[in-house]
Amino acid sequence: MHKLNDTAEKFQHRGINLKQVDWPVVLGIGAMHLGCLAAPLYFSWSALGLAVLLYWLTGAIGITLCYHRLLTHRSFKTPKWFEYFLTMIACLAWQGGPIQWVGVHRLHHQHADDELDPHTPKHGFTWAHALWCMHKQADGRNGHEAAKDLLRDPGMRLLNKFFWVPQIVLLFLIYAGGQWAASAWGWETSGLSWLLWAVCVRTVVVYHATWFVNSASHTWGYRNYETDDISTNLWWVALLSFGEGWHNNHHAVQRSAAHGLRWYEFDMTYWVIRFLGLVGLARDIVLPKPHEMPK
Ligand SMILES: [Zn+2]
Ligand SMILES: [Zn+2]
How far is the CA of 152 from the centre of ligand 2 (A)? Predict the structure, then answer.
């Protein structure tokens, strides 16, 4: 079992710094978590089903497949119209626009587990998990520098600026859908039930799945590669995040569309990429060269 090595001691732990707190982000994340507390009081099976569906759509397809493997690392190519469509789905995860997300993640790879890494557990586990994104970057970095390719794309700039619009539209559709299901079809549910489960619970689960990649997959697990960082492969993070938990593999072979590289490292997102390849929506799928495979 890999554990943080002694160099972790060299880093000063970071906690809440009121001068740097990004209040709109904190309020948004706080509201979603508050919604989770109320959700059990308004449980309905249809709301749970919709939440699971949107967890897969926004977590696996939006964040993992689109923001991470397609936009950040260009692990495969896809038609432009489909790239915009996938980006719109990613916007529904309430994790910010594509330029911000991709830029910050590229900074993570450029500075993996060194002092300038936006989220390394060497600055503390809670910092790497959630606190980092509730703070403005101390040195004013916002990731845009690292995402210049996306900045040159007018469609991406538009989606980045108005990333909150699809979320709001979906929010109203979900509420209306719940009300409709209750009144027109007589289902035992309500708009509030659908809202609390398919928006609040689903968003919070995707938040923590993404955040565990940054915290737990740099803390516990095993390593196939002796990379310079402290990234690890961790099965339960891979399960929660649709394959992202094979994070040591990813740090070693960053452009690979497959993150699970051994037969038991299941990678559900890679299966979707293969399917997109079969139907002509993904090409030039990048895979590790034979000498890059785990020994
Ligand atoms: Zn990455
Ligand atoms: Zn990492």
Answer: 26
Query: 54 phi and psi, to 5 degrees?
Result: -75, -25
CA–centroid distance, 258 to ligand 2, in Å, is: 15
Q: What is the mean pLDDT of each run of 10 residues along the chain (295 residues)?
A: 51 83 94 98 98 98 98 98 98 95 94 92 94 78 83 96 96 98 95 98 98 97 96 98 98 98 98 98 97 93
Query: In the numeric block, which tokens belong to residue 75?
Result: 């692990």
Q: Is the dihedral of CA 53, 57, 63, 65 positive or negative?
A: positive
C-alpha span between 190 and 53 (Å, rounded): 18
What values do phi and psi take at 263, rounded to 5? Answer: -60, -30
Quote the tokens at residue 290: 């034979």
Helix (H) or strand (E) holding 158: helix 154-161
Q: Are 285 and 273 in contact (CB under 8 A)?
A: yes
Q: Where are the domains of the chain?
A: 6-292
Q: Name the token pair of 43.
A: 């449980």
User: Which secondary structure element, helix H or strand E, spans residue 157, and what is its range?
Assistant: helix 154-161
Calculate how far, in angstroms, residue 214's C-alpha sits from the geometric centre of ligand 2.
6
Backbone angles phi, psi at 222, to 5 degrees: -120, 165
Answer yes or no: are the C-beta atoms of 156 and 99 closer than 8 Å.
yes
Collapsing DSSP to helix, strand or coil, 1 comes out as: coil
Cα 112 to ligand 2 centroid, rounded to whole Å: 6
List Cα–Cα distances, 129 to 15, 65, 202, 216, 217, in angstroms: 12, 21, 18, 8, 10
